Amino acid sequence: MATILTLDAENGRAVIDPKSYANWDGLLDRFDMIRSQSPVIRVEGVDEVHRPFWLVTGYDEVMQVSKDNAGYLNNPQTVVFSLNEGIAFAKSMTGGSEHMVASLVTFDAPIHMKYRKLTQEWFMPKNLKTIEAEIRDLAQRTADRMIQAGPEIDFVKQVSGPYPLHVVMQILGVPEADEPRMMMLTQQMFGGQDDDLNQSPMAGMTAEQITQLVAGAVKDFESYFAGITAEKRANPTKDVASTIANALVDGEPLNDRDMMGYFIILAAAGHDTTSASTAGAMQALASDPEQFARVRADRSLLPGIVEEAIRWTSPVQHFMRTAAEDCELGGQKIAKGDWLMINYIAANHDPKQFDDPRRFDAGRSPNRHVAFGAGAHQCLGLHLARLEMRLLFEALLDRIEAVEPAGEARRATSTFVGGLKTLPLKITPA
Q1: pLDDT per residue as tens digits for the range 166-220
Q2: Residue 412, C-beta contacts closer than 8 angstroms, at least 6 positions apart
Q3: What 8-state DSSP symbol labels residue 175?
Q4: Region for 419 from its dihedrals, namely left if φ exceeds 0, alpha if ψ lies in -120 to 50, beta otherwise
Q5: Which residues are bridge partners to 323 per DSSP?
Q6: Which DSSP string do the residues of 206-244 spell out, in sequence order?
């Protein structure tokens, strides 16, 4: 029998420590070292509060798991790395499921595709053209506000944070006055590991209290979108909220849990990720005046800027999968029921796939990154994210002559959704 390769305790603890993800270069160094040992390696015995799992850092192996949705399941174990205590609490709240929210992210076949098809056409480029003018208007107003606030700004707080939130809330039919509430709930769900982002005094909380706070955010989301659902059933429009509220699966309306899960995943996952990629792109351009000048002069480079920013930042940093059967991956024997972490940061910085992966290269081609996932679970909103970023940078480049760093950029402390939480810049208007 092949020897199981196990990661040493120090590196095992670092891989699951949110603070590691705030130290970008150190994190990439660590993943390079781990990947050189094996692209698939066992992490166990590092503490008593997490399950053991397989860490997958190689691009080929992450892609293999991502595309094999029958061999590597999103159920029954949770798809986000979690404390044992948090998993137990979720099961107590849901009647046995490890998923606090039931959504596209947690479903396997055949139910997954039935639910995905409900909105898949809505998020395709052909339909997004119908709302492109509205998004462009939001982008231009965001850029104008940035110029008015300058010359020194925090790009995350004033641009890359609010802009995608505006877009997602608009397509969900959420009034602008309610956007701060949506931001707060999202950050309680995804920013719980970072004291600057979670908008709650979590530093002194126990794991159980933090889990209960997240559960409270889920309940608040559910209550809010129950109202949206009632409104969209009574007065349907062409927005995606109406599509979800009036959807049928196997001839029946969605049950309350699945309906709310659909709204929550679109509301919560649709803006923090785009915010992170947008901030990453601006950080790269601010640090490289030549590249900024090139893209400002030649807007055909913008799609490359967008794609490279998504790879370079990898805002969704991991997902978990469960092996459906005994199998082999990256030379390691995986047992049925084993938990695997597919780490997108590591995969998108694998030098076997990407030449000089730490370099931001707007002309990188091919750029087959895995930041959106792959296979049946590839991100539903990938075309929307690309469109939002392109329209925003078109607006910004029309208004900015030059941009440069104006202080230290800081990353979020988070193992799941991550990116810059501050990006001080000095802008020179055009």
Answers
A1: 999 888 888 888 888 888 777 776 655 666 655 555 556 666 676 777 777 788 8
A2: 21, 22, 191, 193, 194, 196, 197, 418, 419, 420, 421
A3: -
A4: left
A5: 72
A6: -HHHHHHHHHHHHHHHHHHHHHHHHHHHHS--SSHHHHH
